Amino acid sequence: MNNILHRLRPKSFKSQLVLGMGSILTFLILTFNYITVTEERDFLHEQGLKQAANRSLALAAAAKVWLLSNDYVGLEEIAHNFAVYDDLEFIAIINMDGKVLEHTDHSLIGQYIADEKRIAYLKEMRHTDDKPTEYKILIDNKQHIEIMRMVHDGKNHIGMINLRLNQINRQKNIDEIIMKGIVFTLISVFVAILFSFFIVNNLSKELIALIAMMKRVRHGDKSVQANESTTKEIALLSREFNSMISALKKSEESYERLRERLELAFEGTQDGLWDWNLSEDSVYFSPIWKKMLGYEDHEIPNKFSSWQERVHPDDLDNAMKDVQDHIDGKTQMYKNIHRLKHKDGHWIWNLARAKAIYNQDRKAIRMVGTNADITELKRLEKALDDQEELMIAQSRHAAMGEMISMIAHQWRQPITVITMGANNMLVDIELGNTSEEKLRHEANSIVAQAQYLSKTIDDFRDFFRPNKNKEEVKVQDVFNEAVNIIGKSFEHDNISLSINGNEIGTIKTYSRELLQVFLNLLKNSKEALVEHTKEHRYIDVLIRSDEDSVITTICDNGGGIEKTTLEKIFDPYFSTKNEQIGTGLGLYMSKTIIEKHMHGRITVTTKEDTTCFEISIPKTSREEEKKDA
Amino acid sequence: MHDIKQLKEQIQTLRERVKQCKILVVDDEDEIREKTGAFMERFFDIVHCAEDGKVALDMFNQDPTFDIVITDLQMPNMPGEKLIKALKIIEPELFIVIMTGTPPDVDDEYTHLYDLCLAKPVGVDDMLKMMEMLVERKKL
After folding, report:
1. What's the burial of A52, exposed, middle or buried (CB within 10 Å: 0-12/13-18/19+)?
2. pLDDT of residue A629
3. Which listed residue, A28, A266, A444, A605, has the most CB atoms within 10 A of its CB?
4. Residue B80 in this model has a pLDDT that exceeds 80
5. Cβ–Cβ below 8 Å for B42 and A421
6. Where are the alpha helices (DSSP H) in B1-140?
7. Distance from CA of B1 to the nearest CA of A (A)
8. What is the pLDDT of residue B1?
9. Which of A423, A425, A526, A537 to mutate to test the interface with B (most CBs of B within 10 A)?
10. CB B36 to CB A421 under 8 A?
11. How far apart are CA B60 and CA B26, in angstroms?
12. Contact between A550 and A514 (Cβ < 8 Å)
């Protein structure tokens, strides 16, 4: 039903108004005409009835004398006189017995009335003499009015007049009036529709103009301006329209600025943008996104699989997992580094970042993000890794050089002892002074020294042993190893070394690298002490543990470090020593080893002539933490 | 290589000549000191040993009749450099030999303070050469 109404409802405002106004006007005019015509008709009808009554009354008055005197000639004359009215059909004068005394149709004179209605009326009137002007309308239709009127002599009814009038003329008048009414109505309706059309047209003209303007606005023409109108509402509408246009212009300008900014940003970063509609499984990939992979805009379909099938097989699982985690709301943001296949076949490293939009049910419906080409960054990263590897190698070389001079130092004593023992034996032989006892003593001494030499070289060899896997070690043990290697030289240089600390369990770490760090720090301390401190040279070492790390503090009174030096102390190739002694890699490598390899921390503090290095190594490595998680 | 006979003769000759000399051996390393001392006893009649510069200086002050001092350089308490400086002040004519693992540069400020520098380990040849120098110097 509604549908039908909807379909029938005029569509335009104009036709609605025209139809509405037209039909109201038409209805009013029709009603007016109907009332006018009906009144006119009723009036004419009334006139007809009055005429019949008046004429019959006059006839009755005239006929009374002749009836009383039974003069039929007089009656005939009266009838004749009355017959001059052209609307008269007939006149009959009838006595109380029902005999026709006079009739305009002479053939009927002398006959009796046979009509039942008439007879009934006559019979009734015989007994009602008290109603002198009694009459009855016998026929009243469009063609005729017939009246029966009693003739009263003052006491009794003495006869009856029967008169019929023709109504054709009156009907003609009525028809004419109706006809005129219809014509008038038609004209008025036409005029009304025309009038309403003009009014509506005038009204809607401005509206249509506004609509046209809006169309132009929609097509991008923002220069339009609505004219002032004499109609209050239209004028209001125009004003609102104009202010809406200026507001639109403003917002369009700011939108344009925003769009430009965004475009510039994306142009500048060359980041590819994508917008994934999860419910439809369609993805919008920006032209830059496609260009990044060497494709034109039309060459990659906007589907999820366009991305999926270009991801490096080794990276796909991880990337999909990260996407899924974010869709499931497990992560705040999707972030993944993966390789995408370029049109040429090579791989593009890229950093993808995105955020999902969730609906009320916490279901992801859309995901918008960017892909940044980080191939160059990856290359630099690799170059940096290579560089670092090179530095590690360099520092190892430097450490090796230092080791060799330490070995030379360590070996000097036993070799000197051996040599001297051999000298003694040689001299004894030459002087013929040998004894078995003496020889045994010297040989034993040589064996002992040789064993010491062997042990020393083993200590050093351990240091150069590649340390690929982590081992369970005590930090104290590693530190003691360092002291074994370097400690001898402390005695020569009058450096007192004290090691304190509580009992600490083992940690899993790269012990050789840690040894390198300890050796490096001890060597630095020693060199600083020899250079700057004349007496009471000391190195204090404290090895302790807190909840999650083992902390080694190495302090010396080697003169402290200047502030400007302190800032650069961990920089590669930075050294305060002359080039022959220092490579500038020691502390840089120590920091690299502690922070990058062991995920610990190395810090330095200095106060007056005291410098402290603090090394903190986590008890559980990151890999294990990850495993636990 | 040495002719064995020649060496035997050389040792015997040298021994005879330096026998009366008094020697002081200074080294912080016990074993080196003992072994060196033992070697010297095979030549000299009077051999004294000191474990550092300070002890050596004390000994020399008590008895400045030593003909030769053989000392290490790197030592606790008083390093060799300080010791030879002090000895030269007391006895400018003293025959001083340095026996060290790290020989000083030739242009070092105290090169004039010693007569001979021996690099550890010292073989019997160098020891004999040292004694020959002593003989020449003392005109024994």
Report:
1. buried
2. 46
3. A266
4. yes
5. no
6. 4-18, 30-41, 53-62, 80-90, 124-138
7. 14
8. 47
9. A423
10. no
11. 11
12. no
Report whether B104 contacts B73 (CB < 8 A).
yes
Indicate left, alpha or beta for A508 from its phi (over 0: left) and psi (-120 to 50: alpha).
beta
In 3D space, the residue among A481, A478, A484, A561 whose CA is nearest the CA of residue A524 turns out to be A561
CB contact under 8 A, A420 and B39: yes
Q: Could A424 and B7 be called an inter-chain contact, meaning their C-beta atoms sit closer than 8 Å?
A: no
Write out pLDDT tens, residues A330-350.
999 999 999 999 999 999 999
Residue A295 above 50 pLDDT? Answer: yes
A290/A342 Cα distance (integer angstroms): 9
One-letter amino acid of A27 = F
Please tell me if residue B119 touches chain A, with a CB cutoff of 8 Å: no
Q: Does residue A4 have a pLDDT over 70?
A: no
CA–CA separation, A474 vs B50, rounded Å? 40
Residue A333: closest CA among A305, A312, A313, A352: A352
pLDDT tens across A474-511, in order?
A: 999 999 988 888 887 888 788 999 999 887 888 888 88
Tell which B residues from 55 to 84 touch A, by Cβ distance under 8 Å: 74-77
Nearest Cα to A237, choosing from A198, A208, A272? A208
CA-to-CA separations, A329 to A10, A251, A335, in angstroms, rounded = 52, 34, 13
In the numeric block, which tokens belong to residue A494? 């009058």
Tell me the CA end-to-end span of chain A in Å, nearest whole number: 66
Give the helix/strand (H/E) hosting A151: strand A144-152
Taking an 8 Å cut-off on Cβ atoms, the answer to whether A412 and B75 are in contact is no
A205: pLDDT strictly greater than 90: no
Q: Are A369 and A285 spatial neighbours (Cβ–Cβ below 8 Å)?
A: no
Q: Mutation target for A interface from B18, B19, B124, B125: give the one with most A CBs within 10 A.
A: B124
Contact A423 B8 (CB under 8 A): no
Question: In the β-sheet with A549-556, what is the strand arrangement from edge to edge?
Answer: A495-501, A537-545, A549-556, A610-618, A601-607
Q: Order of strands across the sheet with A364-373?
A: A282-285, A272-277, A364-373, A347-358, A334-341
Decide if A492 and B75 are in contact by the 8 Å CB cutoff: yes
Interface A–B counts its CB contacts (< 8 A) at 74
**Cα B123 to Cα A465: distance, rounded to the nearest angstrom:** 34
Give A430's contacts in chain B (Cβ within 8 Å): 7-8, 11-12
- Judged against a pLDDT cut of 60, whether residue A6 lies above it is answered with no
Residue type, A149: R
Tell whether B110 is within 8 A of chain A (Cβ).
no
Q: Does B122 touch chain A (CB under 8 A)?
A: yes
Closest chain A residue to B15, measured at CA: A431
Find chain B residues with C-beta within 8 A of A445's C-beta: 31, 35
Buried/exposed A439-460: b ≥16 CB within 10 Å, e otherwise: eeebeebbeebeebbeebeebb
- Which residues in chain A touch residue B8, judged by CB atoms under 8 angstroms apart? 430-431
* pLDDT recorded at residue B97: 95
Q: What is the pLDDT of residues A115-159, one digit of tens each?
A: 888 888 888 888 777 777 778 888 888 888 888 888 888 888 888
Min Cα distance A415 → chain B (Å) is: 6
The structure's pTM equals 0.47
Residues whose CB falls within 8 Å of the CB of residue A416, separated by 6 or more in sequence, listed in order: B29, B32, B35, B101, B120, B121, B122
What are the φ and ψ backbone dihedral angles of A335, each rounded to 5 degrees?
-145, 125
Alpha helices in A432-553 (DSSP H): 436-464, 475-492, 511-532
For A74-96, what is the mean pLDDT?
A: 84
Å from A452 to nearest chain B CA? 13
Peptide bond preceding B79: is omega within 30 degrees of 0, i.e. cis? Answer: no
Q: B42 and chain A: CB distance < 8 Å anywhere?
A: yes
